[in-house]
Amino acid sequence: MSSAANRFALLLVTGLAAGCGAPEGVWPGGDVVLVSIDTLRADALSCYGNPRGTSPGLDRLAAGGLRFEHVLSQAPNTATSHATLFTGLEPWTHRVANISSLEHGTPGLHPDFVTLAEHFADAGYHTAALTDGGPLGASWDLLQGFQTVHAQFEDVAERVDEALELLDEDDDRPLFLFVHTYEVHEPYLPPAPYLERFAGDYEGPLLEALDEVRAEQAQAGARPNGRRMLLGRESFTADDVAFLHSLYEAEVAYADAELARLWPALIERDALIAVTSDHGEEFGEHGEFGHKQLHVETLRVPLILRLPGGAEAGRVVTMPISLIDLHPTLLRAAGLEPAKWTGGIDLLALGRGEVDGGRPSFASTNEHIHPSTASVPWQRSLRTSDLTFIESIEDGGTGRHMVTSYEASDVSEQAPIFERELRTTDRVSLRVSGPAQLLGEHFWELEGIRQQILRDGNGVVTLRASDSKTVEELRALGYVER
Ligand SMILES: [Zn+2]
What we know:
Layout: H1 3-20, E1 32-37, H2 56-63, E2 66-72, H3 78-87, H4 91-94, E3 106-108, H5 116-122, E4 126-131, E5 148-151, H6 156-169, E6 175-181, H7 192-199, H8 206-220, H9 238-259, H10 263-268, E7 272-276, E8 282-283, E9 289-290, H11 296-299, E10 300-306, E11 315-317, E12 321-322, H12 326-333, H13 347-351, E13 361-364, E14 378-383, E15 387-393, H14 394-397, E16 401-407, E17 418-422, H15 424-431, H16 437-456, E18 462-464, H17 468-476
Parallel strand pairs: 1-6, 1-7, 2-11, 2-12, 4-5, 4-6
Antiparallel strand pairs: 2-10, 3-18, 7-10, 8-9, 13-14, 14-15, 15-16, 16-17
Helix pairs in contact: 7-9
């Protein structure tokens, strides 16, 4: 958009704010702050049922705003999920992959997609991103539209200090601020008081591993390899798993306490605050640790919206929604219009009963897209009000095709009702047998949308080599073992 158009958009926005009367649930020209607590599964927060008092700060924020009880991410990893958060597009539309192609260049976000930051910048906002780097550094092109960028790993306390400084120095323009932290991501290294409170009674072999990781951190002065706690171990006892989970909860409690210093400053500005995560974390529920699979523990995330004026305070929305819905929600709340191809629904309009909820939620990994990783299985999932499907197709989508299905009422996805390899003929029969029909048809339809975007030139995969700094940041997160 030209600068003249920028000014027009700003005038339009301020004109509405000055008394033309904004519609209900629209706050034109107001500050918007999006906080991504990377790797935060919903049930780690006490307002989502965690019994250990992990999140008094976020609980208070939720009590003063809207809390969405059932929120599913569209990808189990950072780059892909944030690309969805920023663009409002499904993973197979924006085609941003996470890290398996690191050594060969990474499919980043194509510049033709319009991000939240670009929408806000075009409307005259100051757009600022304070991130912990990795996929939210330079190499994935995810920070398109941010005028102020600081992408560097920091402790969450430093991240909050930095955000408070930015608020102090801010100019007269409305602000779109993105704050991101890897504090609760591996390696889980909570400060001593939190370690003691949440995990102090464990005496098993992982204590030694924890000491090694801490020593590595002290020696390097930086984040150690995130997977050190897990590497080289054939199996974990129930106590080991409980210890890992407790370390994670301790990190959540620490992050919550530090972020609680930020909320009053944002509420004083009457900002719209959205707090969420890109994906959850698995602790062996389905045999893996970290965030690889498409089960509910890696996809269910929190979403808290603190609205200007404290609107809708204390309301809890139980209708299942998806992270893809946040993009249109934030734009419409600021009086802006998302691009026409954006997916998702306006969650505030959902709350007012103006749009239907209960839509299917999709998730996908995108690692198979890159030519060098074409043999990586393509995993995708679909959740409807009745059923959950999780698929894995070998050889980048062309090989052996495994499907697992659960009743939606099986909330922890422990008792599959269907689990087997499919052949082409099986797919046909699955498609015509009740609710499963949606699986084939909807993916087919999405495939069509993707191909159309490719023809329009919007979906061309951008390849760029990753720099050594990014490789180091990813090693710290545990993604690079060499
Ligand atoms: Zn992440």
